[in-house]
């Protein structure tokens, strides 16, 4: 078997990161031994850092789950006065829940599900917010982070989830909302945080966060991570990654600040191949009718091939930001960033399309493959502050963005052995039979063997598609205080988005889109700590918005002369009414919203090989949330979402441009991956100054995997628990039990063939040092 991979070496750097982490942890232990002897003698005013958050005082009180203002200057008012739904996951929630990646973190926010990837739709985080795919709507410190990735959070301070159409804030896409990851930056106080986590299924995680002020106005910060684990309740699967993130800031505490930062992360995994859907009928011509995944009687079953499957990823992000206070009320900031991400994988898709699952109790191991790289260079200039005009106070933010993005997608060619695509019409009509000379391409549904040898050959295929995009945009936001009780929030953005797709075989296609997006809201403040608002916002999704790096409903098909398409931007509108209150001496934030999101002008099939922008989908919903302290010892982070989705006009049913004759209309169906009800609650209570306990429950209702509503994953409730103990101000211990009841459930639904199963019960023991 012959393979060629993208050069993403993992083992040596990961071992180096582990060695560094272990050495620093050992150093911390020595310091701890000395610190423990004279803890009482130390001054109580010393600044201590807990997970990169500065804390003053010996008690090390837990940081609040409440966040009162978003990090981006584009939010020109505190969250209580912002007329849209915004949820911020703070560092303390990430720590208490022991989240290690983006999907872990977003579990605490209702109304978000995840879709599954395969080959054409790449592996990586695919969050679906309020029913709309947000795979391309992730930002890092306010700048778009392009490219399909599975994101780590070892260098993340908080995560801001903005719900509802959000193109005004970040540009194209964001029909259901967007995510902004806030990175850890150098601070003015020295600290060292080191931690290691040991857990079930050979989980080993080491982290280091060290900050040093080396000049009066300059500081350096370094974050390191090494992580390896198997997966509870799943055979064979393993994840292995490491990362480093240094940053340097000059001008701390002065009017002029310059920051240099770099982020690097690599992974090398044997990924989960998922669980196939089963047919309700064992007919050779059966179609799915409300069918769910079937694991053959053992939820541990893994249908991939150790001999063939792998996934390697890397991400490199370099940033230079310059910020200057022109005066007390005006600041200019320029951010220059170059990012590069890539992934290389061969993944088994447990394919049910040949009807082997129910007819013969076997699974076809269909290979999905992808080699992709994405390069992004962005320069973003922001001017923000406040001024008074005609007696009205204005908090404003305006800016210019220039971005160049380029994606290259290629893959592998498989020369499979005979009978490697087994269907009901295979020789003798026997289908996919275990024991036949199929070279490992077939396995048993109830007893798969991941150690089967794959006897086919694999060669690197450099033919593929290169997609480039140029963005030029200008935007402005303003919150106008008409009087102390009435606020007017306005925002507008103009984008010029030019994209080109060039396929090695089919040729070139290009599209130039120019569009405005808007937002407007009126806020009434009956009291200082509360608001009632109504708002309107839009988004636009032009052709090729995903750069071939995600599930694109409005794709730019390279050089395909057989397809005719309008190539117009899809548009989304959101109408929302809500209220926000800060209660209990402003310690606890409560929010509620009722909304309607309408996506119109969607690209739909209207006749064979003809697409027009004539479709429509809609989501009506209600959202509630609470975050902060109920008492000084009791913290709460909770939310609930009700989402009623509908394909109002989905066009004709088809595949690859061909209309499916006789297919049942999908008009009126529910949208994929949209649960009607979902809820998340996480709470902690400080039993005594050194002991805290906590727990959570996460519910997601049944979701369909496809627009035909023929395959689904059942609803589930997952329970988590935690307890922590502070030995002293320098060391603490924490235990987390995730999926306490060992619930078997699925957290990603693919439109056809399979769904991804979540991890079973996982126990994690963490030790953290702070100096």
Put simply, the count of helices is 5
Question: How far apart, in Å, are the first and last alpha carbons?
Answer: 51 Å
Overall number of domains: 1
Number of β-strand runs: 41
Work out the helicity level. Answer: under 10%
> What CATH architecture label applies?
Beta Barrel
Structural class: mainly beta
What does the main sheet amount to? 22 strands, antiparallel, barrel
Mean pLDDT: 90
CATH homologous superfamily title: TonB-dependent receptor, beta-barrel domain
Describe this structure in words.
Helix content is 6%, strand content 54%. It is mainly β and 771 residues long. It has one domain (11-31, 43-770): TonB-dependent receptor, beta-barrel domain (Maltoporin, Chain A), CATH 2.40.170.20. The strands form 6 sheets. The chain has a 22-stranded antiparallel β-barrel. The protein has a 6-stranded mixed beta sheet with strand order 6-5-4-39-40-16, with no helix packed on it. It has a 5-stranded mixed beta sheet with strand order 3-9-10-7-8. A hairpin with a 7-residue loop joins strand 35 (703-704) and strand 36 (712-713). The protein is globular. Mean pLDDT is 90; it is low at 1-61.
């Amino acid at each position: 078997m012959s393979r060629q991979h993208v050069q993403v070496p993992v083992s040596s750097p990961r071992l180096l990161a582990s060695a560094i982490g272990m050495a620093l942890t050992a150093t911390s232990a020595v310091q701890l031994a000395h610190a423990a002897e004279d803890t009482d003698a130390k001054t109580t005013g010393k600044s201590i850092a807990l997970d990169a958050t500065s804390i003053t005082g010996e008690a090390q009180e837990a940081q609040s789950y409440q966040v009162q203002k978003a990090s981006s200057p584009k939010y020109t008012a505190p969250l209580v006065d912002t007329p849209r739904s915004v949820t911020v996951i703070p560092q303390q929630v990430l720590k208490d829940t022991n989240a290690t990646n983006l999907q872990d973190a977003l579990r605490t926010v209702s109304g978000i599900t995840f879709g599954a990837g395969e080959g054409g739709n790449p592996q990586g985080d695919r969050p679906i917010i309020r029913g709309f795919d947000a795979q391309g709507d992730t930002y890092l410190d306010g700048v778009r982070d392009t490219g399909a990735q599975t994101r780590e959070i070892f260098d993340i301070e908080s995560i801001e989830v903005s719900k509802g159409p959000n193109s005004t804030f970040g540009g194209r896409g964001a029909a259901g909302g967007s995510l902004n990851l806030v990175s850890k930056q150098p601070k003015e106080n020295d600290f060292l945080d080191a931690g290691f986590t040991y857990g079930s299924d050979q989980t080993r995680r080491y982290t280091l966060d060290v900050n040093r002020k080396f000049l009066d106005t300059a500081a350096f910060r370094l974050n390191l991570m090494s992580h390896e684990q198997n997966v509870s309740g799943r055979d064979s699967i393993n994840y292995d990654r490491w990362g480093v993130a240094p940053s340097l800031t000059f001008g701390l505490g002065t009017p002029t600040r310059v920051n240099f930062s770099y982020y690097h992360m690599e992974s090398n995994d044997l990924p989960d191949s998922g669980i196939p859907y089963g047919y309700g009928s064992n007919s050779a011509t059966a179609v799915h009718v409300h069918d769910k995944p079937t694991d053959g009687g053992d939820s541990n079953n893994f249908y991939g091939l150790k001999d063939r499957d792998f996934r390697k990823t890397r991400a490199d992000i370099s940033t230079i930001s310059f910020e200057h206070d022109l005066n007390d009320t005006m600041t200019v900031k320029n951010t220059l960033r170059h990012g590069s991400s890539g992934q290389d994988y061969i993944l088994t898709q447990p394919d049910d399309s040949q009807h082997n699952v129910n007819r013969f109790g076997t699974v076809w191991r269909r290979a999905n493959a992808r080699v992709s790289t994405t390069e992004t260079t962005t320069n973003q200039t922001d001017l923000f502050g406040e001024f008074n005009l005609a007696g009205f106070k204005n908090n404003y933010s305006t800016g210019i963005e220039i971005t160049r993005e380029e994606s290259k997608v290629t893959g592998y060619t498989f020369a499979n052995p005979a009978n490697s695509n087994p269907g009901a019409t295979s020789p003798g009509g026997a289908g996919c039979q275990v024991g036949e000379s199929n070279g490992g391409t077939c396995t048993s549904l109830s007893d798969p063997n991941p150690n089967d040898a794959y006897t086919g050959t694999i060669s690197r295929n450099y033919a593929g598609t290169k997609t480039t995009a140029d963005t030029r945009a200008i935007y402005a936001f303003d919150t106008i205080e008409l009087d102390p009780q009435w606020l007017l929030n306005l925002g507008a953005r103009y984008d010029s988005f030019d994209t080109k797709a060039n396929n090695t075989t089919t040729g070139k296609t290009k599209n130039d889109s120019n569009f405005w997006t808007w937002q407007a809201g009126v806020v009434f403040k009956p009291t200082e700590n509360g608001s009632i608002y109504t708002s309107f916002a839009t988004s636009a999704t032009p052709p090729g918005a995903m750069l071939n790096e995600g599930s694109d409903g409005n794709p730019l098909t390279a050089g395909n002369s057989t397809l005719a398409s309008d190539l117009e931007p899809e548009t989304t509108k959101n109408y929302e009414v809500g209220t926000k209150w800060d209660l209990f001496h402003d310690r606890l934030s409560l929010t509620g919203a009722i909304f309607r999101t309408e996506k119109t002008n969607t690209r739909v099939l209207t006749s064979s090989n003809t697409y027009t922008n004539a479709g429509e989908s809609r989501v009506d919903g209600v959202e509630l949330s609470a975050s902060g302290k109920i008492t000084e010892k009791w913290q709460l982070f909770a939310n609930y979402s009700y989402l009623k989705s509908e394909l109002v006009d989905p066009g004709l049913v088809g595949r690859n441009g061909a209309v499916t004759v006789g297919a049942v209309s999908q008009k009126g169906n529910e949208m994929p991956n949209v649960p009607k009800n979902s809820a998340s609650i996480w709470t902690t209570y400080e039993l005594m100054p050194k002991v805290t306990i906590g727990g959570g429950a996460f519910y997601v209702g049944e979701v369909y995997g496809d627009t035909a509503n023929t395959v689904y994953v059942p609803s589930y409730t997952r329970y988590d628990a935690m307890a922590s103990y502070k030995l002293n101000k320098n060391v603490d211990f924490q235990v987390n039990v995730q999926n306490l009841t060992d619930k078997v459930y699925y957290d990603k639904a693919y439109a056809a063939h399979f769904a991804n199963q979540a991890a079973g019960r996982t126990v994690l023991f963490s030790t953290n040092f702070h100096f």
